[in-house]
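Quick start: what a row looks like.
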Amino acid sequence: MSLSNPLSEYIVRDNAVTLIQGSDSLNVLDRMVSTNIIDMPNLTSRDALFCDYNGRISDYGTIYTISGKVLLISSAAQNEITRRTLVDGTSWDEDCEILIADNAIFRISIFSRDCHDMFSELGINYQAAEVNQLIESGDHLFVKYESSLSERLDILVKSDNVNSIKSLLSELDYVEMSSERWEIYRIMLGDVTINDALGNLPEEMGLGTLVSNDKGCYPGQEVHARIESRGRTVKNFCRLTGNSPLEIGKHSITNFGSISVSSSIFKDGITHALALIRLGESPTEVVQIDGNNFSMELLSYP
């Protein structure tokens, strides 16, 4: 499937923001996630998974190291559970403080067909910027992301400065995405949210690279180690595209089995959806759901 990048658009992300500070903050967080983060240098970012003791995803977030502090941006839906996990996982003698920063810091994601010009307008040297490295400029932090399908710039901005950033983007002819437009675009990108991932195994979701089996103990490690030794999972995450509406939930597939649709939107006669499918021995490129054909593409991180 081809993906046409939006010309000049941005979205203010709906996330939970947690500030973790203290000399033991990175050690505490490393014990809670399946991803190795203990070696993160200052001013870098890394995606990470929180899993339960059955190895299934309970939250999905991005970790930023900022001058001795750690910023966690995770799902708003799971924020209470994730923060309770962090608090309960901190020993009494560890220097680690968990602070809620939901209304203090926001993440703005910017998409452009010409990221070089966009970076220049914001005062950033695009050529010098490395992927996943934070760049400080004024009161803001910038980080560049790249995948095979798109490039984007994320800005971490204090609440007092959100309107000024939005005004600057408007002057540069950037348009704020509607929630509907964002849902379509993130599905086209295969951008997983907690609604897609919750309760599933990382390997099923194509997120196996966010599991570090060579690190210390963390919730779900034994299950992940067994999956690694087995070498495969029976389910895979995929993107579906078709010309008929497709409801979220479980569906039967003709001569195939079942599929669980976690995200779906029907716009201009086209359905864009994300789903978890139980694959047979010979994966197909087209599946029939409720009598309608949908093209299927397996997904993986990033």
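That is the whole record. Residues 1-6 have pLDDT under 50 and may be disordered. Residues 16 and 80 are 9 Å apart (CA to CA).
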